[in-house]
Amino acid sequence: MSEVFLGIIAVSVLAMAVIQIGALIYAARLARRVEALTNRLEDDLKPVISNVQALTADARKAVALASTQVQRADRMLIEFSARVDKTFTLLQQRILTPAKQVAALMAGMRAALTALRGFRDSPGRRRASTVEEDDALFIG
């Protein structure tokens, strides 16, 4: 009877060995499939990754160019503002100040002419016009 048990044990060990060999073969096939899948995935993703890298490089260049242009525009606006300010200052110094002086001179000349006309008028005329003005104001 021990021979029967030994036979059963031998068959069981053989069955386990066959199952383990089958599992190893299945695991090897699965490993090959996973490797093939990862290789395919890498091959498919390489162009995408290179495109993304190219896009980021282009975006970096575009941002650098835009930054340079904004700085250039800022400098141009500052220069323009300084030139406009200088022009208005020059305009005020060269045109407005002399114009004000000429206007003051003209006002002085008018006042002098008015005063001369007043001196020219005779005292009799003055009194007559004063009397006429007083008559117009009289109420009664």
What's a quick, concise take on this entry?
The protein is mainly alpha-helical and 140 residues long. It is built from two helices and no strands.
Q: What attributes characterize this protein structure?
A:
2 helices, rod-shaped, 0% strand, 140 residues
Uncertain spans, ≥5 residues at pLDDT below 50? none
Write down the domain tally: 1
**How would you sum up the major sheet?**
none
Count of distinct strands: 0
- Alpha-beta classification: mainly alpha
* Helicity, as a percent range: over 70%
The string of secondary-structure elements, in order, is HH
Topology:
Layout: H1 2-120, H2 123-137
What would you note in describing this structure?
- Helix content is 96%, strand content 0%.
- It is an all-alpha fold.
- The relative contact order is 0.03.
